[in-house]
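Troubleshooting: if your tokenizer reports a length mismatch, compare your output against this known-good record of 125 residues.
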Amino acid sequence: KFYYINLTHNLNLSISLHIEIEPKNQNLSYLFIIRFNNVPNLNKNLIDEWKLMCPRDRKPHTSKYTYFIDNTRISHHQWAVIGVREMKECNRDNLDDNIQFSSDYSIRMYTSGCYYLDDDNNWQS
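Known-good structure output:
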């Protein structure tokens, strides 16, 4: 499944990208693939970032997987496509073409930045 997110921002201000996924079945693993300004294709290795999320990777006392991309990675991009796929095992080498989701999940993507007013009352990051 693919999700599009707009990364357009003011040239003077930088942003970071946050991705959270919360599966209903807490025992499932997921693979995130990301491509900036284009659609990712895992089979052709057309990806800019990837992250395998395993149950052991979740922070204590949370049911969410989180992934963060800092402002230096996205500063020159206008948009990104995030691909999500459920994994049968927590192993990137175990990829097959039969992509199925056995459980529902919720996903949240948002951008953030740290800004301040300079001496001329202009926003800076």
